[in-house]
């Protein structure tokens, strides 16, 4: 029996799309079609191992440019002839393990039904090469099969490395043995975690993962602390720290906790207070949100947000959190990431958020952990010890911040929870944002360091119906 995935798909090219005609898969295909068109709108997309371009057709009209790469000329010929493509669509022959040879600059990528054919021991190598090929802050969508008895070919054997195999038969009767792996969503998330912020969800027959690579533009954390929001030198120093994607607490602690508490965002209206460069818009829109409004006091941050994300549904405005005053009931989720510890008074803002939310609408906030904000003095630079002092003495704290100073307002954990309750919310979640071990699996010493002291506090709450 012949083996070899590349040759199998070259021989199968003419009949490949029949797999998508199965009635039980139509719901998943329709859901993914809507999601891909939204996610890739206005982006320069690299479609890796694009095959016959069945999936490319679902998003190519919405992109700024699309480059379809596949190793087989047989499938590319079918892809080119599939339809009249937009002028910004290109088809190139190329190896998924040698993407540096594919010309172009890409801020997004699609990997559809390819990873399941990659050997378990080679998958990290593929992901490393893919992420290196993409621009900072790029969004990657990966889709593949979930094993469903009766819909998928039976697994016929498993090798010593854990790869599973199927026996498949072409229309002409020839039988092939094809490697086809079916990881769990947890296993997919663990593979992606070292490369950025990942969300993985299951449909009926497919799983879909969205991976957001680290960016080199400002993020929300600690960009709202004083009169230095538009200081280019301060921003540059901050970015040098923030871009350490495998060590930054925003990446290994705060963002995984936020993703875990987001909930179902389909058709939700999201307002993000202290949005920074608006990168959070990618996450919420990828998860199906109807709209995203980002507000930040820094004009330069909002300008960066508008440059990086012009997707339908995303809007931005310059303004302070304290002056935020939307119409009642105009949001289903209000978020504020690493900004509210810069406010002297929380109550008025929380009450405004409460009014802005629809019945059962949600609030999700993160702040610098009170263990960190408590001391009245703190040295600049890399923290090697932690001293908790004056914990129950709320009030102003001045902090060195990348060569300047900002103002924090210390509150205890109890103070934060009480403020949220006093504003009329019901608290439904509390997290101290323990570092995600998968994100630091490559650096056990850094994982141990980040587990010593809580740096970030997350509070999730709901407006009662």
Summary?
With 465 residues, the protein is of the alpha/beta class. It has two domains: 208 residues, Rossmann fold (3-Layer(aba) Sandwich); 231 residues, Vaccinia Virus protein VP39 (Rossmann fold).
Q: Care to describe what's here?
A:
This protein is 26% helix and 25% strand. It has 2 domains: 208 residues, Rossmann fold (3-Layer(aba) Sandwich), CATH 3.40.50; 231 residues, Vaccinia Virus protein VP39 (Rossmann fold, 3-Layer(aba) Sandwich), CATH 3.40.50. With 465 residues, it is an alpha/beta fold. The protein contains 13 helices and 19 strands. The termini are far apart. β14, α10 and β15 form a beta-alpha-beta unit. It is elongated, with a radius of gyration of 24 Å. Strands 3-2-1-4-5-10-9 form a 7-stranded mixed β-sheet, sandwiched between helices. It has a 7-stranded mixed β-sheet with strand order 13-12-11-14-15-19-18, with helices on both faces. A 3-stranded antiparallel β-sheet has the order 6-7-8, with no helix packed on it.
Q: What is the average of the pLDDT values?
A: 86
**Relative strand content:** 25-35%
The CATH superfamily name of the largest domain is Vaccinia Virus protein VP39
CATH class of the largest domain: Alpha Beta
């Amino acid at each position: 029996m012949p083996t070899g995935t590349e040759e199998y798909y070259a021989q199968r090219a003419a009949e490949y799309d029949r797999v998508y005609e199965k009635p039980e898969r139509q719901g998943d295909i329709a859901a993914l079609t809507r999601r891909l068109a939204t996610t890739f709108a206005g982006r320069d997309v690299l479609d890796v191992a694009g095959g016959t371009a069945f999936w490319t057709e679902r998003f190519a009209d919405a992109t700024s440019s699309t480059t379809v790469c596949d190793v087989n000329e047989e499938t590319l010929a079918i892809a080119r002839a599939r339809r009249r493509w937009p002028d910004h669509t290109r088809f190139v022959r190329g190896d998924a393990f040698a993407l540096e040879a594919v010309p172009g600059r890409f801020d997004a990528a699609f990997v559809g039904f390819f990873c399941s054919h990659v050997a378990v021991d080679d998958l990290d190598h593929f992901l490393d090469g893919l992420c290196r090929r993409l621009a900072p802050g790029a969004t990657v969508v990966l889709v593949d099969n979930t094993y469903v008895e009766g819909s998928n070919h039976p697994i016929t054997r498993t090798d010593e490395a854990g790869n599973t195999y199927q026996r498949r038969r072409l229309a002409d009767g020839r039988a092939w043995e094809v490697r086809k792996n079916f990881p769990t969503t947890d296993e997919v998330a663990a593979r992606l975690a070292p490369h950025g912020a990942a969300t993985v969800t299951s449909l009926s027959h497919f799983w879909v993962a969205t991976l957001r690579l680290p960016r080199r533009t400002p993020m929300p954390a600690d960009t709202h602390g004083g009169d230095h929001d538009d200081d280019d030198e301060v921003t540059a120093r901050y970015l040098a720290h923030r871009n350490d994607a495998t060590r930054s607490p925003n990446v290994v602690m705060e963002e995984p906790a936020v993703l875990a508490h987001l909930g179902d965002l389909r058709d939700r209206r999201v307002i993000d207070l202290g949005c920074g460069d608006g990168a959070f818009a990618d996450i919420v829109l990828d998860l199906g949100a109807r709209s995203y409004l980002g507000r930040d006091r820094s004009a330069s941050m909002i300008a960066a947000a508008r440059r990086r994300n012009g997707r339908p549904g995303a809007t931005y405005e310059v303004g302070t959190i304290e002056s935020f005053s939307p119409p009642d009931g105009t949001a289903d989720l209000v978020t504020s990431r690493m900004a509210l510890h810069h406010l002297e008074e929380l109550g008025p803002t929380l009450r405004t958020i409460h009014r802005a939310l629809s019945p059962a609408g949600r609030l999700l906030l993160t702040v610098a952990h009170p263990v960190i904000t408590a001391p009245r003095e703190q040295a600049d630079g890399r923290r090697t010890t932690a001293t908790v002092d004056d914990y129950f003495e709320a009030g102003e704290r001045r902090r060195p911040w990348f060569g300047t100073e900002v103002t924090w307002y210390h509150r205890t954990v109890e103070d934060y929870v009480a403020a949220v309750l006093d504003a009329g919310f019901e608290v439904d979640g509390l997290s101290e944002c323990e570092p995600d071990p998968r994100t630091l699996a490559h650096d056990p010493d850094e994982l141990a360091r980040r587990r010593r002291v809580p740096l970030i506090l997350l509070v999730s709450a709901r407006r009662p119906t």
